[in-house]
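Quarterly update from the structural biology core.
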Amino acid sequence: MQANESAPALSPIPVVAVPLLSLAAFGSGVSLRVTDPLLPHFASEFHVSLGDASNVITFFAIAYGLSQLFFGPVGDRYGKYFVVACASIACAITAGLCAVALTFPLLLLARLLAGATAAAIIPLSMAWIGDVVPYHERQPVLARFLIGQILGLSTGVLCGGLAADRLSWRVPFFGVALAFLLIGIALLTLNRRLPEYARKLHKAKGSAVRRMTGEFRQVLARPWARIVLLTVFLEGAFLYGSFAFIASHVHRTFGMSLSGAGALVMLFGFGGLLFAIASAKLVRRLGETGLALWGGCFVSASLLAIGLAPAWWWAVPGCFIAGLGFYMLHNTLQINATQMAPERRGAAVSGFASCFFLGQSVGVACAGRMVEHVGTSGVLAIGAAGVFLVALNFSYRLKSKLPD
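Predicted structure, tokenized:
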């Protein structure tokens, strides 16, 4: 890996630096999606509706989104890699709290804390990669980094399904806690070996709150940044508002076990893995505009197919293609996020992640309220239409984008 043009290339970055960040992203992905197939189980065990059970996702996403506003400037101030390492240790503690929660309100509180501690990992990792990798090399590196998150999302759904059918729902949370503990220790150890330019801190004077507000104000002052942030908010709302109910849809509609439904949804991650492997070729062939447009089309068609399918096996290609399409669209948004405000990259990328997860929280909350009225098929259809319109609008704006 190389340093960017403004960083002195005094010594190389250790080759395990990005893979370790990817492992942390894996843990974050597992934490986010492990509860999806557990929703019917929570509804039954804690005597709540399916919509109320979905609050375990909503609370995590709200805390995750809002905490970005804090971690971006903190990463800039204390070092992004170091903050990711500390956050991983904190995630081990909050995952343990989820595992030992005795009531549904306590589980919701633990999920809120888990979302807050996981908030630093992916956006600060992306921002750190943006600091040390030149722009023309960055998209494939980001795609490879996201393999961890992709596999984490898939593993989380699968583990949640297996736990619902064969084990206690507490088991996967204990596993996540142990994994985060080991990852955090490895990150802290490697942080000491990073060259100075990869650990650079931004010394700043004055009130932390005033400084934080000022950094986000500078990001929002850019028209293109506002477009990217609004787009990723809507993407998160429409996609994950429906995605969270795919396992429940297959379980309720076709009588499939929750572990089987989780295995189907796991294919979403394999679609994303295909993008990560073929990202360089896809970028050259389609460009950013094509990736955004075709990614949205793939997601929309897949959600419709899953929601309206007459048989469960339609979800096999549906989940796989949805994963490919999502990462085509989302990776394009990410690459633009890393360049929205290079001098405030930590705040910019954290704002991006904040909007994405706040969008998810709004989407899941709305879908949770609608599902009792329009059913899971209706929720998936609404998500499909929304993702298509979001992708169409962003690809058009990207094509006509002018420099700030």
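Residues 1-10 have pLDDT under 50 and may be disordered.
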